[in-house]
Design goal:
The structure holds three protein chains of three kinds. By secondary structure, chain A is an alpha+beta fold. Chain A has nine helices and seven strands. Helix content of chain A is about 35%, strand content about 10%. By secondary structure, chain C is mostly helical. The radius of gyration of chain C is 20 Å and the shape is globular. Classes of the chains: A alpha+beta, B alpha/beta, C mainly alpha. At the A-B interface, helix 1, helix 2 and helix 3 of A face helix 4, helix 6, helix 7, helix 12 and helix 13 of B.
């Protein structure tokens, strides 16, 4: 395949970025999108140019590191995959492909396609856990959990924290991410003890990080590689409203 | 490296003079851990906050260790190269985690888990460590459930189990195919809680490039800030390495692209012994490479072998599509060779068999680099619906990657490097040969011997992190007089200078080949000579070739950009440089071990049936390699393995 | 940590959304009855004017003439102010949340209504101002003048102008989209939505989006077409 790439290049956070055009030939249909980027980078190094910086790690769709907006869609045109799971057979010979980073104030740029997503960690740190210290757990089978609840919890827990929801959201909202963690824990008896504190504290942190508010548009759900449902946002809303009326979150 | 003499000296093994003390407590096996815990010195609760501990790595072992030590009151500093602790490669483990809960009432026990693990490791691990692992396995499950890990459940609300990796009891706990992810998120959440409490400081996008010793003790690390490029020293009272395995030495592996040996290797060069580097596990069911562009390999769950039949065409070079090859011309080589276990033989045997048939010209696919895993018979027997229920998501994943529909054409699979049992040598307390340097998780060598059983890696990482390191740390800090040090100490300045010189050197060469090209070439050498089947000639060839490649690397590598900003090529170059040195040691270790055991298979040492043949008389030891300078051969120190509770037997899967 | 209670709801983005949802619900309720009331115009001048006057009698005999209507107007005004304030502050936050926009952005599943909710809201807001100026305050020049005691004539006079009717129809069109997303959205924001009922709720939203603007549109259309 022969492709024309338009890649966002930004040497550092302090400098302005722009789209730069590259031509690339001999791309295998069987290579992943990131492998295509590898080929481009090898070429750039040989030509004495700076290779394109991009985040990636596991390359099997689970670590959540890869993060590219491809032709205007977070993680590219194929549904329910991460960028690393996107294969070049989804494209046609001669295509022009625009590659941009996640864009949000809460994800400041680092270089080229690499952005800083620690804001998502801060949201978890605000309350996305069960406060149980090592050693103080009862026997694992002491608390039976209905299978359906465990399944719903797992649906939410499948979030990989990539931030595609934020990238796709017209408001740059992190609601789906926050909702996934709140729902994962609120579905389980272990997590119910702190559920209202958790919802209030995490939402406060989410707002403080500079993410936008949710307007129920649903682009997050559409690009989520793990198909996290909008339902969880409804659940978060419920938890937050109840938590506010209970004056939770005063830790 | 060009003359015969200098090549020969590369194969020579010199013995070291260190007597390795495993510090295993006396007494009956089942009481050792209790005894150790009682004998351990404690740190007064009010004094814990006076100690700083560095943890490198944020996977299962690192995150759980950091969280647990912070809960106890230590000031923990956690470094990792990813942008969030949640991305460490533990996240990718699919299958599950073992524990001796015996919830299924099927005859499991701590002793049985211990026994299976030590036998699975082909009697090359330390009894006491492995037993402790089995003991704390139950606490791990309790802990994870309390954290909110959504394990699979029965309708009655109790935890579900499955049998995994050929175990005869159902002791594996799982969360769909994402057990590693869920366990890591549990540890990550515990860690996040301690960050909020102010007891853990996180250092994302930070790569440890060296270890700093003061008065012979580990007192800190030198780290490169991957965003600014700045080198920075961090001082502490103890250092814990939880930096994972070195499977990426093969270039193509199931590891994440960033996984590397650098932290361990730097520690090795500062005096920590490297144990059993040749023990590397090759996983039999991965998707074969599709071409030169291939950057990593994807593992398909081993459970596929429950229903899939493995075959190749009988005639070498048969290029007909699978459906055109009649039944009589298909070679179900595993079923033929191992009638009792068939397609379900252990990982190492399945992997080796696949390599043998491919090497003999039976390989299938466009590159002739795989074997078929065929579901036609299973679909006929069980119906497509059942197969979809069992493997639907795996089939989807396969289809996404290869573009082929496994419901219609057989899957193509081939083995890939997956896990490394070897690692830095540690004693019973998980301390390396450098006082104050602890090594946990896959980075150490301790519990799996020469081969790891399925669903045991997660268990070991969390055992070390949640339940062992905190005791060891108390014992070390409570029993050692440590002067306060700061990063302004001359020792830090000196190490930083050395690291800077190395970075500058990498950037100054400006040769013709990229770090990736060197990595790929190293991987090919390792795969050809130091992977599933090894022999003396091949290993010697590997050592010579790697030495030459290493030399070429330092003359011809091309690293673009500067050291003062975000530079992924520079990161990779540093890692490849260390892999080049490690590769040589792996081959040397494999060459020295004149036996076959577990994943280490030497063609010269096989039974009449072609199975691994151990030599317990001469090789029942841990090979702990001691660095002796860049221009000298490393020294081999042996820790004899004593088996008081299990009888050594030959594995048989006929 | 900051204290929270029901009174601090407005601080969080979700709280602001809840305010939008509740005030939006008040708006939907008002619009429905407004639409229903407007249709009485088909029953003739006398009936319609009596209805308009009757509105002031609402709540009798407990409320004095005009008091409940006044109260309702206050609530409605408060709802509009809060709705606009919350929308404005959320828009501001969203605007700040993406300082650098995409060079290329594609929509995957979002519908038109959801993406234009703010623009639709803006159109509706200006429409309301015009509508009130024309038919409540009587500040625009109606042919034949504005008679506070004869709303029927006022309405008929107003809709003689094709320009006015066109503006009304455009605004009602915007309102339809606003209502379609708004109805579904308030249910989601209040956490009442469940995936299983999603189709039903979408249908309900569609119904609202057709019935309310449709009913309201009947009046200007009928007048300019000469039916009234």
């Amino acid at each position: 395949m022969k492709l024309k790439l338009r890649v966002w290049r930004q040497p550092s956070a302090a400098t302005e970025g722009k789209l730069v055009d590259y031509e690339i030939e001999g791309v295998s249909q069987d290579s992943s999108f990131l492998e295509m980027m590898d080929v481009l980078n090898e070429k750039l190094i040989h030509e004495g140019e700076d290779p394109v910086a991009f985040d990636h790690d596991c390359r099997e769709g689970i670590c959540g590191m890869c993060s590219m907006v491809i032709n205007g869609i977070a993680h590219g045109p194929k549904a329910a995959v991460t960028t690393c799971e996107l294969y070049m057979r989804e494209f046609n010979d001669g295509d022009t492909i625009v590659v941009e980073p996640w864009r949000a104030a809460a994800f400041p740029p680092i270089k080229d396609l690499v952005v800083n997503r620690t804001a998502l960690d801060h949201i978890i740190q605000a309350g996305g856990y069960v406060s149980v210290r090592t050693g103080s757990a009862p026997d694992a089978n002491n608390i039976p959990i209905p299978k359906d609840d465990a399944e719903i919890s797992m649906d939410a827990a499948a979030c990989i924290g990539c931030g595609a929801c934020v990238a796709a959201c017209p408001n740059s909202s992190a609601m789906l991410f926050t909702a996934a963690k709140v729902s994962h824990l609120a579905m389980l008896p272990q997590g119910k003890v702190e559920r209202y504190d958790r919802a209030v504290l995490m939402v406060n942190q989410m707002d403080a990080e500079g993410f936008g508010g949710c307007t129920n548009i649903g682009e997050c759900e559409a690009v989520c590689p793990k198909e996290i449902s909008l339902d969880f946002i409804g659940r978060l809303n419920r938890e937050l409203i109840a938590g506010t009326f209970k004056a939770a979150g005063n830790r | 490296m060009t003359t015969q003499e200098s090549s020969d000296s590369k194969f020579e093994v010199k013995l070291g003079s260190t007597k390795l003390d495993s510090r295993v407590p006396d007494g009956p096996l089942a009481e050792k851990w209790d005894k150790a815990r009682f004998a351990n010195k404690l740190v007064n609760p009010a004094n814990k906050r006076k100690f700083d501990v560095i943890v490198v790595g944020s996977g299962l072992a690192g995150a759980s260790a950091a969280a647990t030590m912070a809960e106890l009151g230590y000031n923990v500093h956690c470094f990792f190269y990813q942008d969030s602790p949640r991305r460490a490669h533990s996240v990718a483990a699919q299958g599950g985690i073992n524990a001796a809960k015996d919830y299924q009432n099927d005859g499991d026990s701590i002793f049985r888990l211990f026994y299976d693990t030590i036998k699975g490791g082909d009697y090359r691990s330390r009894e006491a460590n492995t037993y402790r692992l089995a003991q704390v396995s139950n606490n791990i499950i309790d802990q994870c459930v309390a954290q909110g890990v959504p394990f699979a459940r029965e309708y009655g609300g109790t935890l579900a189990n499955r049998s995994f990796g050929g175990a005869q009891v159902s002791r594996t706990f799982y969360a769909r195919g994402q057990t590693g992810q869920q366990l890591l998120l549990g540890a990550y959440q515990a860690l996040s809680r301690q960050v909020q409490a102010g007891k853990v400081k996180l250092y994302p996008r930070s790569e440890m490039l060296d270890l700093v010793l003061i008065d012979g003790r580990a007192r800190g690390i030198v780290v490169r800030n991957m965003i600014s490029g700045q080198l920075q020293g961090y001082a502490a009272d103890a250092v814990v390495l939880a930096t994972g395995g070195y499977g990426n030495v093969f270039y193509l592996s199931t590891n994440a692209k960033g996984c590397n040996v650098t932290a361990s290797w730097r520690a090795y060069k500062r005096g920590a012994f490297f144990a059993n580097p040749c023990y590397t596990q090759i996983h039999p069911t991965c998707i074969p490479p599709a071409g030169e562009h291939q950057s990593k390999l994807t593992l398909m769950s081993e459970s596929l072998r429950n229903d899939g039949r493995i075959w190749v065409p009988r005639k070498p070079g048969d290029d007909r599509p699978a459906k055109d090859i009649p039944e009589s011309e298909r070679w179900y080589y595993l079923e033929e060779k191992y009638p009792a276990f068939g397609n379900l033989v252990p990982r190492d045997i399945a992997s080796r068999a696949a390599k043998n048939v491919v090497d003999a010209g039976h390989g299938i696919g466009p590159l002739h680099n795989g074997v078929y895993l065929d579901f036609e018979e299973a679909i006929g027997r069980l119906g497509k619906k059942v197969i979809t229920e069992r493997y639907g998501n795996l089939f989807e994943m396969y289809k996404n990657i290869t573009g082929e529909n496994p419901y219609e054409v057989p899957m193509r699979i081939y083995p890939a490097s997956h896990y490394t049992m070897g690692g830095l040598w540690v004693d019973y307390n998980l301390m390396s040969t450098i006082p104050g340097l602890f090594v946990i998780g896959e980075a150490n060598f301790s519990d799996h011997g020469a081969n790891r059983l399925g669903a045991s890696a997660l268990m070991q990482g969390l055992a070390d992190g949640y339940f062992v390191i905190s005791y060891s740390m108390g014992n070390y800090l409570g029993g050692t007089k440590l002067e306060k040090v700061t990063p302004t100490d001359p020792a830090f300045t000196e190490v930083k200078r050395e690291v800077q010189a190395r970075v500058d050197k990498l950037l100054s060469i400006q040769g013709d080949r990229t770090p990736t090209e060197f990595h790929r070439e190293l991987g090919k050498i390792m795969w050809d000579y130091v992977s599933m089947a090894r022999n003396e000639a091949g290993l010697k060839k590997a050592i010579t070739k790697i030495a030459a490649l290493r030399e070429e690397f330092w003359e011809d590598v091309k690293v673009p950009g500067s050291g003062d900003d975000f530079n992924q090529s520079l990161e990779l170059a540093g890692r490849v440089a260390d892999f080049l040195e490690l590769g040589q040691l792996m081959a040397l270790d494999a060459l020295d071990r004149n036996e076959s055991c577990g994943a280490h298979y030497r063609e010269e040492y096989q039974t009449e049936d072609g199975e691994a043949k151990r030599d317990d008389e001469h090789y029942a030891y841990v090979a702990a390699w001691e660095y002796a300078g860049d221009d000298s051969q490393p020294l081999l120190n042996k820790e004899p393995l004593v088996f008081e509770n299990v009888k050594l037997t030959q594995r048989s899967y006929k | 940590m900051q204290a929270t209670s029901a009174l601090t709801l407005y601080r969080s983005t979700i709280g602001k959304k809840v305010i939008m949802a509740v005030t939006g619900l008040i708006g939907i309720g008002f619009l429905f009855f407004h639409m229903y009331g407007n249709l009485k115009i088909f029953l003739g001048q006398e009936y319609f004017n009596a209805y308009a006057e009757g509105l002031r009698e609402l709540g009798a005999p407990i409320f004095i003439h005009g008091h409940l209507l006044f109260l309702m107007r206050v609530v409605l005004l408060a709802a509009v102010i809060l709705h606009v304030w919350a929308a404005w502050s959320l828009w501001l936050k969203a605007h700040r949340a993406r300082p650098q926009s995409y060079e290329m952005k594609r929509v995957v599943q979002a519908n038109y209504a959801s993406r234009t909710i703010r623009w639709g809201g803006l159109v509706v807001f200006f429409f309301i101002l015009f509508h009130l100026a024309q038919l409540t305050w009587g500040v625009t020049n109606l042919p034949g003048g504005f008679d506070r005691t004869d709303p029927y004539s006022n309405v008929v006079a107003a809709f003689q102008s094709p320009l006015v009717v066109a503006f009304y129809l455009i605004a009602l069109f915007a309102l339809a989209f606003h209502l379609y997303h708004g109805t579904w959205s308030f249910i989601q924001t209040l956490g009442l939505l469940h995936k299983r009922w999603d189709r039903l709720v979408r249908l309900f939203a569609l119904l609202m989006a057709i019935v309310i603007p449709g009913g309201l549109a009947l009046v200007p259309i009928s007048i300019i077409a000469g039916f009234i």
